[in-house]
Specification:
The complex is a heterodimer of chains A (about 300) and B (about 475).
Chain A lengths: L2 E11 L5 E11 L3 E5 L6 H9 L4 E11 L18 E3 L5 H7 L1 E4 L11 H20 L2 H8 L20 H14 L17 H15 L3 E5 L7 H18 L2 E6 L12 E6 L2 E6 L1 H22 L1
Parallel strand pairs in A: 3-8, 3-9, 6-7, 7-8
Antiparallel strand pairs in A: 1-2, 1-4, 4-5, 9-10
Helix pairs in contact in A: 2-3, 6-7
Chain B lengths: L2 H13 L2 H10 L7 H11 L3 H16 L20 H5 L17 H10 L3 H8 L3 H16 L5 E4 H7 L1 H7 L11 H9 L3 E6 L9 E3 L2 H5 L6 E6 L4 E6 L11 E2 L2 E6 L4 E10 L4 E3 L1 E6 L4 E10 L2 E4 L2 E4 L5 E10 L4 E10 L5 E10 L4 E10 L6 E11 L5 E10 L4 E11 L2 H9 L4 H12 L1 H4 L4 H16 L4
Helix pairs in contact in B: 1-2, 2-3, 3-4, 4-11, 9-10, 13-14, 14-16
The chains are: A alpha/beta (about 300), B alpha/beta (about 475).
Chain lengths: ~300, ~475
């Protein structure tokens, strides 16, 4: 059972010092679905990027903690110290956060030409496992591992060291996940997001989450630009993440629409870089009817 | 005879470097490039008079031509001392000690081979140790399989002796004449080694013809000549060079490549080359393509201090076509000026140029291209695409596409993109678990994928490895 705990998070744009986040508090546990809502410019996407470690933002105050338990660490062979259960994500690189089980689905994912989905996903999965081992092994072993062992296999094929997932085995995993998401087989051989439609990109983000099996997935406006059929596919994929893999989902969205398909356990409303209101699924419906001005008035009155 | 020469000859005998023995002695000439040098080379190779005369004439032309200095954005050649060339051609005993023993190679070279994951036997071959034997095996296999069909694949020096008429007709006559440029003239004067490929009419050579080890075994093959003649309706894929670093004490490489593509014939010339970082790489490569013939150039240029290389194609016959795919990588202190030239001299001709370059740590890449469409070459089309990828703000990349269009009924497209490796792209891959370096490598190997997919797998793999090593800055 992993818990993502965000306390009093303040962040600004590294380039110009523009303050975006002004004290965000949030807590998401694995298996739960949270919706983070708010008008444009309220800081939702920035929150997502800061959680994942985007270099364009400086965190000026607050903390992002990830608490893990034995279940989350069942794959680790090492004797684990107390510190291995609690991590301050702000000390870690984006790929280290990924290795600990943080996943960010992008609103506008990068298009990488020349890299097939299969190749990319297999390398990502293997990189995640490798990084995970490094994060949890003790320092002496880490040093020994640092010695350059050279290449044992083709970098085009990706690494195939002991314990890593080979091409055939990975194909199997990929086809299964793609079938669950009702994705066409040709997907696997296409270049990563290159020439994908908006809907395909969103589906691809969910596919990646299904393969990388994160503890906490932050989904940044995964519902934008989807037609009804695709929205339903994507929503099913998200529910499966939550139900079957026990992933904690932080669903960032502008509209109620996707919440008709994926019912949230908790709903949070952001305004001007802060979470100003929390509630259950009904809150989302109220927002749909009343709009964000209503929240602003409420908050303003109480303040 | 100097003690250097004694040592050389002794080494040669021990290594059974038969045909190279003479040429090595010849190359131990006096400093400076003179007629005597040419006579010595020609004597030692026991060349027919016509070849000796061509060399002498090329020397004259070389001496008469000025150094190219004033091209816009041209790499700086001011440190290249032509008068020092001949002594450089002579193998240097200290650094060529590797001929005897792998362990005598400089550490950085051994290191690179290790990082490439090349096995010991292959390392020896690549570094010049015992390579001659290996290369003979390569030739032998080719001959057994194809000689009955009339295919010839041999060393260029041998070809002068064994296939004199063919060579006499085609060697630096109307494809790359020495008058083409100063370095073509230099090449014509002191060329040595290289490959000769002849494919008779209607013969398709299904497997790629590879001069893989031989290029390296030459050692002194810094002026190697490649002559490919594909007769009507024939087909061949020739692969030259190696993707391992060319260990060389020399600082000038000036090769020549001539390709004759007959009617309805198809030639693919692929090369992945990585020169030591002190080398000036100044080559002339050209193909003449007859009616409905097809020429393809696939090249990866790595290493060198400065490279000037613009493989060129003359589409002579109606319906002839040409396809260029090039990739260049420039790191610190490197200036890679490369591109393509295509002359559309007949109707219905077609060309595509796809150029990719990567620069990092202050390196410079330049695409320099020329597409010429002659008056009367109606219904011809050309498409040029240049993509540059830069790692940092210190690196530079320029695009200089020249288009000379003298015919109105043509289709011309040019597209250029220049980009820095995107922070968003890297971040995206990092959130999927890849570290910063792996993310960059993934982006670069995707970027060069159009090249790697055209190459046989072992070359593609090594090209990828080389790029990775370049990116880590671990190549010497």
């Amino acid at each position: 059972m992993a818990t993502l705990e965000i306390n009093n998070l303040h962040a600004e744009v590294a380039e110009n010092g523009e303050r975006i986040l002004r004290g965000v508090d949030l807590e998401v546990e694995s298996g739960e679905i949270h919706a983070l809502m708010g008008p444009n410019g309220s800081g939702k996407s920035t929150t997502a990027k800061v959680i994942a470690g985007h270099p364009a933002y400086d965190v000026t105050e607050g903390e992002i903690l990830l608490h893990l338990d034995d279940e989350d660490l069942a794959d680790i062979d090492e004797e684990l110290e107390e510190e291995h259960y609690h991590w301050d994500l702000l000390d870690l690189e984006p790929n280290e956060r990924a290795a600990l089980g943080i996943f960010l689905a992008f609103q506008y994912p990068a298009e990488i030409e020349g890299v097939t989905m299969t190749n990319f996903l297999r390398q990502a999965l293997n990189a995640k496992h490798e990084e995970r081992e490094e994060l949890f092994e003790d320092e002496e072993e880490a040093e020994a591992d640092d010695e350059d062992e050279g290449y044992e296999s083709s970098p085009m094929e990706g690494p195939q060291d002991e314990g890593e997932i080979g091409v055939a085995e990975f194909q199997q995993i990929l086809s299964e996940k793609m079938e669950l998401l009702d994705m066409d087989e040709s997907f696997a051989q296409r270049y990563l997001n290159a020439g994908f439609s908006g809907g395909e990109k969103k589906q691809n983000e969910v596919l990646q989450a299904a393969i990388l099996e994160p503890s906490i997935a932050v989904l940044d406006e995964i519902d934008s630009g989807l037609d009804i059929d695709r929205l339903s596919d994507v929503a099913q994929g998200i529910e499966r993440l939550s139900d079957e893999q026990g992933t904690g989902v932080l669903q960032i969205t502008h509209y109620q629409r996707i919440l008709d398909y994926v019912e949230p356990d908790r709903v949070h409303v952001m305004l001007d870089g802060e979470v100003v209101m929390d509630g259950d699924a009904e809150l989302a419906e109220e927002l749909e009817e009343e709009g964000y001005d209503w929240v602003r008035e409420q908050v303003y009155e109480t303040a | 005879m100097s003690s250097d020469q004694d040592h050389l000859q002794q080494t040669d005998t021990e290594e059974r470097f038969d045909f190279k023995k003479d040429s090595k002695a010849a190359y131990a000439a006096e400093k400076g490039l003179t007629e005597e040098t040419i006579h010595a080379i020609s004597d030692d190779k026991d060349e027919p008079d016509w070849m000796r005369e061509r060399r002498l004439r090329a020397l004259e032309q070389f001496q008469a031509m000025p150094m190219p200095t004033d091209w816009p954005g041209q790499p700086d050649l001011s440190e290249l001392d032509i008068d020092e060339i001949v002594p450089y051609v002579r193998p240097d005993i200290e650094t060529r000690g590797g001929v005897d023993d792998w362990t005598d190679l400089p550490d950085e070279i051994k290191d690179t081979f290790d990082k490439l994951g090349i096995p010991e036997a292959e390392k020896n071959a690549l570094s010049g140790v015992g390579a001659q034997y290996e290369s003979e095996v390569v030739y032998q296999n080719m001959q057994e399989r194809w000689e009955e069909k009339g295919v010839v694949f041999c060393n260029m020096d041998e070809a002068v002796q064994e296939h004199e008429e063919l060579v006499k007709e085609h060697f630096m006559t109307n494809c790359v004449p020495p008058s083409d440029n100063k370095f073509a003239a230099l090449h014509g004067a002191i060329w040595s080694g290289g490959s000769f490929v002849y494919v008779p009419e209607d013969v398709t050579v299904e497997m790629p013809v590879q001069a893989y080890f031989r290029m390296n075994s030459e050692g002194m093959g810094q002026f190697e000549h490649t002559l490919i003649i594909a007769e009507e309706n024939s087909e061949v894929h020739y692969i030259e060079g190696c993707s391992a670093p060319k260990y060389s004490a020399f600082n000038l490489h000036s090769g020549g490549v001539e390709v004759f593509v007959g009617e309805d014939a198809h030639v693919q010339y692929s090369t992945v080359q990585n020169w030591s970082k002190n080398t000036y790489n100044l080559n002339t490569k050209r193909a003449l393509v007859e009616q409905e013939g097809r020429m393809e150039w696939i090249s990866g240029s790595m290493g060198s201090k400065a490279t000037m290389l613009y493989p060129s194609t003359v589409l002579k016959g109606r319906g002839a076509s040409d396809n260029h795919i090039t990739i260049a990588f420039a790191g610190e202190g490197q200036d890679i000026d490369t591109g393509a030239k295509v002359y559309h001299n007949a109707p219905n001709t077609k060309s595509t140029i796809e150029s990719k370059s990567i620069s990092k740590d202050g390196g410079r890449t330049n695409y320099r291209g020329l597409v010429h469409i002659a008056d009367g070459a109606e219904n011809s089309s050309t498409a040029v695409e240049c993509d540059a990828l830069m790692f940092d703000n210190e690196s530079t990349s320029d695009t200089m596409p020249y288009m000379e269009i003298n015919e109105s009924k043509v289709d011309v497209a040019h597209e250029a993109t220049v980009g820095k490796i995107g922070d968003e792209d890297i971040f995206y891959l990092q959130t999927r678990g890849l570290d910063d370096d792996d993310a960059k490598q993934m982006i670069v190997s995707g970027f060069i994928e159009p090249i790697t997919e055209e190459l046989p797998i072992e070359y593609a793999v090594e090209l990828n490895r080389l790029v990775e090593l370049e990116m880590e800055g671990s190549l010497g």
